[in-house]
Design a protein that fits this description.
- There is one protein chain.
- The protein is α/β, with parallel strands linked by helices.
- It has helices at 20-28, 88-98, 118-139, 153-158, 198-206, 224-232, and strands at 3-5, 15-17, 36-40, 46-54, 59-67, 76-82, 103-107, 146-147, 164-168, 175-176, 185-190, 210-213.
- The chain is built from 6 helices and 12 strands.
- It has a 7-stranded parallel sheet, sandwiched between helices. A 5-stranded mixed sheet has the order 1-3-4-5-2.
- β7, α3 and β8 form a beta-alpha-beta unit.
- α2 (88-98) runs parallel beside α3 (118-139).
Length: 233
């Protein structure tokens, strides 16, 4: 059954017009009145809904039965991930969403190839959030991870939330991920292509990040955080 994110109050019996993005998707799928879809708004569970009207650019539905089902990971993993070049960041956001990430904060690291600011940063943020929405619709999640505005490590540390912190590192003294018991919530810091700079890694360690290794092989910037999520899911 097709699934759509609908960021609006959902109540059984409610008649409503779908948001523009969901409406376009319904039309692309050539759905018709009486067809049944699934809606979720990120507040828990999902709803059946029946298409009642197909307009040229709008779609109306009637909200049906609520199902209190969740498909979230057992641990809330928040990624602080170095921005990667080209479409690799899209891939990271998509796959991290499928693997149950709680949130993603793009990191403008010293070695980041892609530098974002101003209007370009706003457009990229909206694009990445859209990627997360589409991935949640596809994989069955009923909660869409938030993609936060891009920040530098120093900016993040100034407003850092409490909780356990891991930094993916190739330096000596790291502990294997398999040995990290972890709590219910953890922030995972990973670098861009080329990794974090020595200064960034030093700052992270000073801020309480525990250095963690994923093994003897060097993983790509978009692969390493996904490996963590796969273990923690």
């Amino acid at each position: 059954m097709p699934r759509f994110f609908c960021p609006a109050p959902l109540v059984t019996g409610l008649a409503l017009s779908l948001p523009a993005g969901a409406a376009r998707h319904v039309q692309v799928l050539r759905l018709q009145p009486c067809d049944v879809i699934t809606l979720f708004n990120g507040e828990g569970g999902e709803f059946d809904a029946t298409v009642t009207r197909m307009g040229r650019s709008d779609v109306e539905v009637e909200v049906g039965v609520h199902r209190a089902v969740e498909r979230e990971a057992s641990r809330a993993v928040h990624l602080l991930a170095g921005i990667t070049a080209n479409e690799r960041m899209d891939w990271l956001v998509e796959k991290a969403t499928e693997l149950g990430v709680a949130s993603i904060t793009p990191l403008v690291a010293e070695r980041s190839v892609l530098k974002l600011k101003g209007e370009r940063a706003e457009k990229k943020l909206a694009h990445w959030q859209g990627v997360a929405v589409a991935a949640a619709e596809q994989c069955g999640r009923n909660r869409v991870p938030t993609v936060h505005p891009a920040v530098t490590l120093s900016e993040w540390l100034k407003k850092a939330p409490p909780g356990e912190r891991w930094v993916l590192s190739l330096s000596e003294g790291t502990r294997p991920l398999s040995e990290m018991a972890g709590t219910d919530t953890v922030t995972v810091l990973s670098g861009p292509e080329g990794g974090l700079s020595p200064a960034e890694e030093t700052a992270a360690l000073a801020a309480g990040f525990a250095p963690v290794t994923l093994g003897p092989r060097v993983l790509r910037a978009e692969t390493a955080p996904l490996a963590v999520l796969a273990v923690c899911a």
